[in-house]
Design a protein that fits this description.
This protein is α+β, with helices and mostly antiparallel strands. It has helices spanning 4-15, 90-103, 127-142, 149-164, 171-178, 221-237, 252-257, 264-289, 292-308, 315-326, 353-363; strands at 21-30, 42-43, 45-59, 63-68, 73-78, 110-117, 183-188, 194-198, 204-210, 330-336, 343-349, 370-374, 381-382.
């Protein structure tokens, strides 16, 4: 956790004046429900305690000066849209929320922004969404722009789509903003309704194992999967008497029944999404009942589907998952995030975290994956 006083002092040293606002936004850990949010399905994330912190002050010119203390990297740019479309630099996310706040009427020209973080980037913990939410909260407060939670989620999602080129759903921003300590969020990505499901942390622990492989969502695979899901949904929408808008409206049984008619690749993608939505609903039931063995089995099924049907795993992830699936100390484990690297989430028996971390290190001594515990924390806030 980063102290608010040290964040303020760091901003003053960097920019020579006090910040007008500071905010903290956590990352998220998704228990289950991967690649279902942009298909309007269900997800079961929780806000973690690791977070991105932003401090800002407004400028009277049209310049954005952004500094990442974590990366020790400074970026100065005009507070205007890129002429070449979306980018992939971390400052594109900052620029996106600034310009979208201005677009909705905020009195906001330029800004000095300092970012600090104890949240690993690119590890499947939604660091980009946390960056967006922290900056949006701080900038909105600095310029006196009232914005409710739903508007802020939509604004941050637009920033990621339009300025970073990632066709994301709403899960990451919602979990970062609406998280509650000790609870997972069963989020309906169509109605946006949230049910807070208690997570009995005394009965099981959550461990994130970072593969060290960093994904770049804008490289195309994430967008390609979204396109494939839309194509599969269009097939089912075209069936006689059908009313499917997205794969949310299709059951896994229906997909299997049409496997001979549907393109094999689209069948595999649809089997993952429809099955994952069903698994997520079942996982919430298991969590309510405190049945961690059932939750673990569903996590294992989720991983196998992500690997085999959605094809977003990689060798480094599999080297971590295999011993976890074989361990008697682990209820379940699965890759987390968009895929193509990132991290693995393990649901382990209470008190067994150290042994599980040692097993992971012994199984992959070449890379010595970094392990760290996570717990359900509160959502974003001003500091």
């Amino acid at each position: 956790m980063i102290d608010a006083n040290s964040l303020r002092e760091h901003f003053e040293r960097r920019f020579g004046r006090a910040p007008a606002a500071m905010a903290r936004a956590p990352g998220r850990v998704n228990l289950i429900g991967e690649h279902t949010d942009y298909n309007q399905g269900f997800v079961l994330p929780l806000a973690c305690e690791q977070a991105v912190y932003a401090a800002c002050a407004l400028r009277d010119d049209d310049e954005l000066r952004a500094y990442s203390a974590t990366l020790d990297e400074s970026h100065v740019r005009p507070a205007a849209r890129r002429e070449d479309g979306a980018g992939s630099h971390w400052s594109d996310y900052v620029l996106g929320v600034l310009l979208l706040l201005r677009e909705r009427g905020a009195h906001l020209r330029g800004a000095d922004v300092l970012i600090e973080s104890d949240l690993p980037a690119g590890a499947g913990l939604a660091s980009s969404a946390a960056l967006e939410v922290a900056c949006a909260l701080a900038l909105a407060h600095a310029c006196g722009e009232p914005i409710d939670a739903r508007e802020l989620i939509d604004l941050c999602r637009r920033a990621e789509r339009e300025f970073a080129g990632v066709p994301c759903g709403m899960m990451d921003q919602t979990a970062s903003l609406r998280g509650r300590a000790g609870h997972a969020l069963l989020l309906d990505c169509r109605s946006r309704e949230i049910e807070y499901v208690p997570f009995n942390a005394g009965a099981a622990d959550l461990v994130v194992i970072d593969s060290g492989v960093r994904h770049a969502l804008a490289e195309g695979q994430y967008a390609l999967r979204a396109d494939e899901c839309r194509a599969a949904a269009e097939y089912f929408a075209g069936l006689p008497g059908a009313s499917a808008q997205t794969l949310r409206d299709v059951s896994s049984a229906t997909v299997r029944a049409h496997a001979q008619q549907l393109d094999p690749l689209l069948t595999a993608r649809a089997l993952h999404v429809t099955g994952e939505i069903e698994r997520t609903v079942a996982a919430a039931d298991a969590l309510r009942a405190g049945d961690f063995a059932a939750l673990g089995r569903l996590m294992n099924e989720s991983h196998r589907s992500l690997r085999d049907n959605f094809e977003v795993s990689c060798p480094e992830i599999e080297r971590i998952v295999r011993p976890l699936h074989a361990s008697t100390r682990v209820y379940g484990a699965r890759m987390m995030g968009a895929g193509f690297g990132g991290a693995v989430l393990a649901l382990v028996h209470a008190g067994a975290r150290a042994e599980v971390e040692a097993e992971c290190g012994a199984a992959d001594a070449r890379t010595a994956p970094r392990c760290f515990p996570v717990a359900a924390g509160d959502g974003a806030s001003l500091l």
